[in-house]
Amino acid sequence: MSPVTARANGHRVRWRSRMRTPVGRLLSALGVAVLLVPAVTAAQTGTATVSGRVLDAANGSPLPFVSIVVETAAGQQLSAALTAENGRFRIQGLPPGTYKVTITFPGFQPADTDVLVSALNQAYDLGDIRLPRLQNFEEKIAVTADAIRVAGIDTQVFRLDAGPAQSTGSLLDALKGLPGVTIDQDGKVLLRGSDRVAILIDGRPSSLTGFGSQRGLDSMSAGNVEAIEIINNPSARFDAAGMAGIINIIYKQQEQLGWSGEIGTGLAVGQFTKQRADLPTELGSFSNNGKLLPSFSLNYRTATVRTFAQGELLLQNDLPNNEFTTRVYDDGRVLESQVPENREQYHYTVRLGADWTMSPARMLTVSGIHDFEEHIDRAQVPFIAQPSGLRERFWFWRERETTGFTNLNADFRHQFSTAGHSIGVNLQYTRGKEDEAYFLNEISPIREGTDNTHLIAIENTLPLSIDYTRPLRAGRLELGAKMQRRWIPVSYIVGRGVQSVIYEGLGDFSDWDEDIYAGYANVIHVKPSYSIEAGLRLEQTNVSYTIPDDNIYYPGSDAYGYFEAFPNLKFTYRLGSANRLVAAYNRRVDRPGEPELRIFPKYDDPELLKVGNPFLRPQFTNAVELAFNRSWTGGSGTVALYHRRIKDAFSRVFAIDDANPNYDIVNRLYENAGNSKQTGAQVLVDHSIARPWRASAGVNVYRNDIDAFETLLLFPTRRPFALAATEETTWDASLNNQIKLPRAIELQASYIYYAGRNVPQGRERDRSSLDVAAKWPLRGERAELLFTFTDVFNDFAVEREVQGQGFTALYQNFLETQVMTINLKVRF
Fold first, then answer.
1. pTM, 2 dp
2. Torsion, CA 208, CA 211, CA 212, CA 213, rounded to 10
3. Best label site of 78, 491, 524, 694, fewest CB within 10 Å?
4. Nearest Cα to Cα of residue 735 among 702, 703, 692, 697
5. Rg (Cα) of the chain, in Å, rounded?
6. Cα–chain-centroid distance for residue 73?
7. Which of 813, 447, 496 is nearest to 663 (CA)?
8. Distance separating alpha carbons of residues 271 and 287, to the nearest angstrom
């Protein structure tokens, strides 16, 4: 009989006549049942799930106990299953590859379909497969269904247990050594030269670190983190903030039933050497700073509930800031100063939570993080005229500050009967608090006096989001909505002394509110040779900033709103099994946070006042990227070309306050400093050079173009301000070597280099860091001893040259980057 072509439930179906006896069909079914046990066992080692539903083509009723067999391209049976009473089946644990799925049931025509499983997706829905009934013959059904896979070579995952250097210290320390990641002088994380990075915790917006500052990363231990994921071209599913991309922090999850855990303790010493001698004072700057770092992780897991508790404590002396300033004025005067921030600190973080599998289809996760830090800083700040060496001014202060946050998170997930078909609801609340009191003293020819300031800022964030995912035969549909409210009341109390240097007319409070309403749709369409991802996120943002009536610097409170669309498009073309080409576009926004908006100056350096701008507006970015990835035996490599345009980029600028006749005050203000663009190329390579030696390297070369800009500064006096256009090609590179020795001993050496680069109003000088680490397993690998030494040669200081109006300056921040740590961890 010749083949006959027909259609069933939208599939192209080909029937072929083949005689078969009832006894043969029965023996075939029994054979499949015998193979079920070993096949299911083998499937547990894979990664993907394939599901579907089998129906009677005659009346659409579900068919129970239908045999589903999965074979490799070579014909080797890998897994098998039977459909449930509702006709549904699910096969789990398939590793990446091409498979043939065969569906057989006595009295019905068998069907088969090819499935392409990719490492980039874990759920494949074959939909409804309708089997025609046999009438004295059996027809073979050939159903072709496209596998689901998500393009994403621009997503990189770095396991922190892959090397000893990343598994100790803070998350900021771990990020410093990752390809394409740099850290600037304020401790901000930069991706491809930009600090506008969004932070996620386990795939969810964290509400912990904000956007752009990432201050919380320096207080989060890397010891309890399993991996860090970097997403350069996020889809509409993610918040529109973070033009440079997304960093997703993935915490460890213990799969072992019953009790398990880990305890550890670390001893460290920092700042062995000084790159520059202290200016003459009694206190100077700290060195040989001791640190104590105990930590624990405790888990209890049953078949339905996983509970966990993690915590770490830090007791230390530290030098988080040690800034030397050399200012040269147009009239020939030269002034040198030093602000060493000598810190005594304790800091603890506790994370608690539970995952409850309410049913096979429902899961509830409740978790919380409490972070608390208190420190006392002392500094003696001399201002010395050159070349005479005479001290013109002596500023000394003590600061007592407590900071911290509490995050509460509830996440509910419902899994529909089809694998990968789910809906989730997430509710969070984060309360962050900064309580900062400065006790300021001065001795100079102008005055001998004291002042004090007390600032309390409380940041509240309340996001609610709903996310829906539905697998398609050739892709995936993602829909969702989010509402977020953020409000930040700030109080500022000033105790003025004799001839106080603190600005009059600031007021004593401010209040900032932001409401965001967002919705998104994202569609992924996949073919064996290519895939397309397209999405659109719509956001309405309403902002208000309340300024006290007695503030004399700003015309009044500010309120505004904007509605914006944020599209994304990504095309991936598969060039064989080892090569992929990706083209991507997205549009994103970065909103100023409370430190950028704060109207109250910080007086740690009275001649370099850091202050925000309540009239700062968001910056918008359009980015395109073309990337190529190749995999080979023992390694892989990626080359990415990118270009992004930034509108209304906000940055800190330096401007003289010439209204004060007694002091040479420079204000460091935030402004929307015009437009800029970056065009660059990034190369990432990872390769196993020899059996014990693996190396990875990253190079990012880009041209940074900053447009000319003119504006009117409002604080502390109205005055015009201009920035000249600059352009420069710069680069950064990282090299990481890991060697595995006998007895599971690991050695690691990493080198980071940041070339000099232009910034608004000047440039940053080059800097580098050599880090080494080692790991020794103990007690049959149930314990381990870790040794790390960061910035061995103490070369990672930040030096910035500034071309101001009426002055030039060199800022050198020799903060503490050189730290040696020994850490012992024991698992149970």
1. 0.77
2. -20
3. 491
4. 697
5. 31
6. 38
7. 447
8. 5
